[in-house]
Amino acid sequence: MLQKLQETPLLSSLPLELIREVSLFCKVKRFIKKEVLFYENDEIETIYYILKGSIKFYKVDRFDNEIFLYKLSKNSLIFDLSKLCDEFILQCFANAEFTEDSEVLAIDAKKFKALMKADQKLMQRVMKESFLMVQQMQCIISRDIVFDGTAKVAHMIDNDLDDFNKLKKHEIAYMLHMQPETLSRILKKLARNNIIKIVNSQVVVQNEKELKDIYD
Question: Cα angle vertex 76, ends 106, 93, to 5°?
């Protein structure tokens, strides 16, 4: 466990004594694809850090339709900073489901909070992670509210091409809140304009500047 924590970006820059202390109240858990980590409004006493894999967050509307919010991949912290600062119990704001087989570090929230208050370096590291999370949320809000369909697709291709090519088209459409037919039309249009080309079902960027211009 100590070696694994030393290799984890969240803790790797911290003193060995501090990492050893964290190792006393955390463990590694493994989850399979489609397994649920928690449901909205669950109360948990654990902070999670993704070591391998990825997880999606979503809500369900009154018609039982899934509304995709965002996705986190490896080396991401799953927690609500405001709850961590004020309470020991963390209340979940959305459902969380793994999108592939994953490995997660489960940390006791109460003990981690006490240690974070006592050590400035750990506090700074957690704050940095929280700012990255806020930036990601801002990006998602801008994409979903401001961008049209073409801009959403262009943004994902430009910023997350590996995921775009790894996912099935209906999964991408779900994440971008559009119909699969709409996604196909947009991809064909980008290909006709020589901005991308599709080789063996994989997207290859041909004109990065024009791709950025679509959403910038």
Answer: 75
Residue-number span of the structural domain to which 187 is assigned: 148-215
Q: Which of 144, 169, 188 is the last residue of a domain?
A: 144
Q: Are residues 27 and 120 in the same domain?
A: yes
Residues 6+ apart with CB under 8 A from 191: 197, 198
- Encode the chain (216 residues) as per-residue pLDDT tens digits: 888 899 888 888 888 988 999 999 999 999 999 999 999 888 888 889 999 999 999 999 888 888 898 888 888 888 765 555 555 556 667 899 999 999 999 999 889 888 888 888 888 888 887 777 777 777 777 777 789 999 999 999 999 999 899 999 999 999 999 999 999 999 999 999 999 999 999 999 999 999 999 998
